[in-house]
Design a protein that fits this description.
Blueprint: H1 5-8, E1 14-18, H2 32-38, H3 43-62, E2 84-90, E3 95-101, E4 105-114, H4 123-126, H5 129-135, H6 141-166, E5 175-179, E6 184-189, E7 201-209, E8 212-220
Antiparallel strand pairs: 1-3, 2-3, 4-8, 5-6, 6-7, 7-8
């Protein structure tokens, strides 16, 4: 299966994706500082982490960067080498990494979720008033719930993409999501996150396949 391929092929990024359940849980493939962070993790978490780091290092080499440990900052965002724009995402059944050169790509963000309805108890936390305006117009309860999950995933994706510039961890009320079509969305800023301002937008695409929901943002750098 190529979940993200239809969203990323033809863009300015390289990408890899696979099922982490097929990955090894052995820590020997990691850099020592990565292995230290994973030594107490359960097997499922190890496989997801190793799968993502393995894909990321392959992409770094392909793009002309040396392989290196990829750790997290205080907001749990991956720390990429200077000159790289990239994103990692995973569930227990899928993992994907997209990577581009910063002189070619301005924004990169990926997210994958199970394509199940968002829990009703999370609706008010995840969805802004503008989100509810179009979600509440959906009469079918299950479809509404899955589209609410799209709101969640699209925000996660857009937040990852903007983080390389703002270095701000945004809450779910910082954006609202406009569904442009059955394959595209637009994230609208509801608060400033310099260099982004209220009203700025980030466009992305999405896909639902084999019980998974994938969202992607790739924006080329303006010449």
């Amino acid at each position: 299966m190529s979940l993200f391929a239809p969203l990323l092929e033809g863009t300015a990024v390289r990408f890899r994706e696979s099922d982490p359940r097929e990955s090894s849980a052995e820590l020997g493939s990691l850099f020592p500082e990565e292995a230290e962070r994973m030594k107490r993790a359960v097997e499922k978490r190890r496989k997801e982490y190793i799968c993502g780091r393995t894909h990321a290092r392959s992409l770094l080499r392909e793009a002309g960067f040396p392989a290196r440990a990829i750790l997290h900052d205080e907001n749990r965002a991956p720390i990429w080498p200077e000159g790289v724009r990239a994103s990692i995402t995973h569930t227990d059944s899928w993992c994907a990494v997209a990577l581009g050169r910063a002189d070619e790509v301005a924004l990169v963000g990926l997210d994958v979720e199970k394509a199940s309805p968002l829990k009703e108890a999370l609706m008010d936390t995840i969805c802004a008033p503008e989100d509810f305006e179009w979600l509440n117009a959906i009469s079918d309860e299950e479809t509404r719930g899955v589209m609410a999950k799209l709101v969640f995933s699209a925000k996660e994706c857009a937040y990852k993409a903007q983080y390389a510039h703002s270095e701000l961890y945004l809450g779910f009320q910082a954006m609202w999501i406009e569904r442009l079509s059955s394959a595209a969305f637009r994230a609208h800023f509801r608060q400033d996150a310099s260099p982004f301002r209220i009203g700025d937008t980030i466009d992305g695409s999405y896909r639902i396949e084999n019980g998974l929901l994938a969202t992607a943002v790739v924006q080329k750098r303006r010449k």
